[in-house]
Amino acid sequence: MSVPAIESPRSNTTVTSAAPPASTERKGLSKKEIAADHPTWCPGCGDFSVLALYFKLIEKRKLWQEKITTVSGIGCSSRFPYFVQAYGAHYIHGRSLPFASGVSLSRPDLHVFVFGGDGDMFSIGGNHFNHVARKNIKLTCVVMDNWVYGLTKKQTSPTSPLGFKSKTDTWGAVDYPINPMKQAIAAGATFVARTTSTNPNHVMQMMEAAMDHDGFSFVECLSECVEFYEGAFDASNPRKGGAFNLVPSGHDVTDETAAYKLAGEPFPGYFGIFHKVNRPTKNAKEATLNASTREKFKGLKDWQILQKSFDRMK
Amino acid sequence: MSEPTPSAPQTGSSPTISTINEAVIRIAGNSQDGIQAIGGFLARLAGRSEQEVMTFMTIPSTISGGPSIFQVRIGSGEVASAGDDADVLLAFYQHSYEEHIASLKKNGIVLYDADHVEPKPEWQGEYHHIGIPISSLTIEAIGGTAKDKGKNIYSLGLLAKMFDLNVPKLEALIGERFGGKDVSVLNNALAAFHGGYSHSLGQVFATFKFAESRHKDGQQVVLNGNEALAYGILAAGVRFGAAYPITPWSDVMEILRRELPKYGGTFVQCEDEIAAISMANGAGFAGRVAVTGSSGPGVTLKMEALGWAVMAEVPLVIIDVQRGGPSTGMPTSVEQSDLNLACFGSHGDAPRVVLAPSDVEDCFYTAIEAVNIARRYNVPVFILSDQAIATRIEAFTSPDLEKVCQDISPDLSPVVDYKPYDLAAVDGIVRRVVPGTPILSGRYPVAGGLEHDELGHPTGSPKLHMQMTAKRRKKLQALALTLPTPKVYGPPEGNVLLVGWGSTRGPIQEAVDRARASGDSVSSLHLKHINPLPPGLDNIFSGFNTVRVVEMNDEGLYGYGQLAGLLRARFCDPKIRGINKTDGLTWKVKEILERAKADINAGLHKL
Ligand SMILES: Cc1ncc(C[n+]2csc(CCOP(=O)(O)OP(=O)(O)O)c2C)c(N)n1
Ligand code: SF4
Ligand SMILES: [Mg+2]
Question: How many domains are contained in chain B?
């Protein structure tokens, strides 16, 4: 993004110079500095690993607190921001993406990370997902997919496989599940990746690549709910006798059809970047629009621009 | 045309010129006839002539058109409403003639298109009929290709002649409207205008001249309510907004989408209203006071997210341009039936601020006030506008923009420590520190919808929930103390007090004037601050035998409307009752008078 859509806030420059420490080169935040409340997740929950890797990313990439914002909706996974010692927002169920878009579009100086669950993102928030993807709003979205509603204690989720016995489908899920990867590709997401919380190195790689993508970056991270869907992802975990298959080396990430095909492979499928293309972000498009519009009003104060409009209404 | 009323036609005598103080002109045709354009020209002309002006229009809710009217009231004195009855009716079709003749004053003038209207003999004695083959004369003036296109401008010429309007100013307005396009378009428009202007109205008829208007300070601007709201939002320094289209709100978002880039801001058209308020909440959280808006159905969708803004204490401005409801209801009609939604919608105890502008000028300043309350108190603020104020055009003194425009971009200077929900803060008001600001203590806040402690961490503590609930409420109680007590219109004591809110101020105050002129003891009070209510209302109420809340909403199960319900709950005063209507039309002065008359005649003593 070249020019910010909205001019950067007033004292941005002071901030950088006033940021401690001045003497030595500023280090990335340590785990101690970036960890906040102790996570409320059940012991063994896959979400722990995602949080630990987010801390690592923050440290490695020097994402100081004044550079990022962590946003979530509602769900076990969405508790995420409370565990991070940085600006965060715990928004309402399903609407984290439009909220995060508001942050992203109005504050070009911040990188926005969104964390959420499968219900949050693909059921109640399903439509927002499509639109953020097509608009290519610059932010990183990690869905901790556990194929179940965790927080509300075991109801069917839109990613629950057929036959999954939940409290709302005691006889087994009857509704055909959503495939998050297909959904993202079809909606026009410009970065689509898949990982699993049981492979920390791979999670880290995917999060880094997502963060570096200029646009809407989506990562589906399988994250087991040990409480309500134990063993859901065993088939993808070599330690449980499963297979962790990387995206084939010959795969062309710019080929949408190839990505869609890859997404259709039966579980455990593949892990890695399925799709990555460059398309201008909404942030950049709005910024270009603003720059060309403002060119016509160069040197005028805001009230003088408004005065021009009022003069036409005389 | 108040005084003098046009004298009856005297056959044979030469046209007289009467000086008038005001005139109500109703133009009736189909929506595709460009009726709004004639009204708009007249309104703008009045503004440029330092006259007061107010308009009223109805538009069909279907795109393909249908009957439509535009009424404009122009006056040299104060004009507070669009007028009950018209002095002049310009009727393009038989249906326009038949449906609107009743809105004409006795002895009023009906100017009709003789190509389409067959006048009725029984009405000819009551109203002055002037038939002009407008359609064919327009074609004669500009040629056949124009078809129906120039009739409106031709008629404008007729009216200009009839009211001795300023021709150079009208030509300039026509030039502004049609200039820039193909020159032939402008030439046709001017030809149509002059065709109408030079057409003889007949020797039998009087023409009129407006009295010199009282000189007003400064330049006048002419806007409708939606425009005034949008420009007010810009003046207030808002640089981010998001919404989903819906009538009659859409104009506001269209203007903001078009204008914000000039100021380096962005307006986003979202996939739905929930996304819109969520984006606005995101921007508000990030340090911008953001705006969203809609009409009833869309505002309803925003309610869960509104609760989040209350809980997280994030500033937000929500505009509701009300229309007839519930559901899709009457999309292009007016109603004041979202007051309860604005005051009480959402779940839990969710205090928020509700403001209602009373005229077009007030829309501009209310927008600024709403933004400033939102950012000072970190609370969502509703602006309750409505379809009538949104579409009506008024002239008012151009604001001193250098003075009123403000810069509210966030300040990211580092802070030592930050407690977003500090319980010790005076009146519960804490200055927000927003993302991007270094906090030297290393303790950073999370804004969330869960009940929280002073740092924003979730809590299930009964004590904290009580304290935080009280904190959110106290902010509004503190705000209430700063609000001015509204002034009574008319004597501060008397028999009947009419109470209104929002767009109805004009007709209510005219009703007071007329009632007083006929010796009845009637005053009125207009509320702009609906939630919280300003102090001192109980004192005012105690000066009257009866309080009647005049609202465009249903009288409800118990005989009073939405504001009346709020006031009764607040003051436990059974003398507060309602005067309500749900016809989707603005109040006529005489309707209010008739309804209030019952009280005035109820044997209650006259002061
Ligand atoms: C409007 C609304 N509806 C319902 C809920 C209840 N609710 C909270 S989280 C949730 C589902 C959580 O599932 P998921 O998003 O998959 O997250 P997980 O807990 O599995 O991480 C539901 C239904 C709510 N908080 N708000
Ligand atoms: S219920 Fe499931 S998803 Fe929620 S914390 Fe426990 S294990 Fe994790
Ligand atoms: Mg889940």
Answer: 4
